[in-house]
Amino acid sequence: MRKEDCFYLGKVVSKYSYKGEVLVKLDTDEPEIYENMESVFVQLGQNLVPFFIHRCRLHKSALLRIDFEDVKDEAAADRILGAELYLPLAMLPPLSGDKFYYHEVIGFTLLDEVHGDIGIIQSVNDSASQELFEAKKDEKELLIPISDDIIQKVDRKNKTIHVRTPEGLVDLYLS
Known about the structure:
SH3 type barrels, mainly beta, about 180 residues, Elongation Factor Tu (Ef-tu), domain 3, elongated, six-stranded antiparallel β-barrel, 2 helices, six-stranded mixed β-sheet
C-alpha cells in the first residue's frame, strides 16, 4: 500500500500493558468510528506494513487501546512506539455539504465572487496555524486561507469551491 493512497489515522504514543497493548492518539473528531477495526497500516521506516488487530477499544477521549495480533510483549510494543498509523482513503467516511477532506479538493477551481476563477488548488498547506489552499493561476501562486468566512460553497459535481476573499488579497497575487 502506498502512503499516497492512505490517510493518517494517528500515532502510537505509549505502551498500555506488559502484554504488548499500545495506546494510539487518533487524529479525528469521531474516534468511536475506529473502535472496531480489523487491521491498520503501521509505518515502519519508509514502508506501510499491515498489522492485524485482535481487539481495540476507546481509552479515555481520543486514545485507542489496541491489542495487535503479532505484538504480544513489551519488546514488540517498543518497536512500534512512535509509529504512525494509516488507513486506505476508501475507509474515510463520506462528507457532504461544505465539508471536505484536503486530498479530495486538489484540482478544484477556486471561484471568487469578485474576481471569478482565481486558480486551481495544487495542494493544501496545513503546517501553519492557518490552513491555506495553494492555488495556481497563470504561473502565479496564490495562498487562500481555509475558513468558514471565506468558503461560501463546495461544488463537488463541478469541482469548484466558491470563495469570498478579503478585499485586496487576490490583487496582491495577480496584479
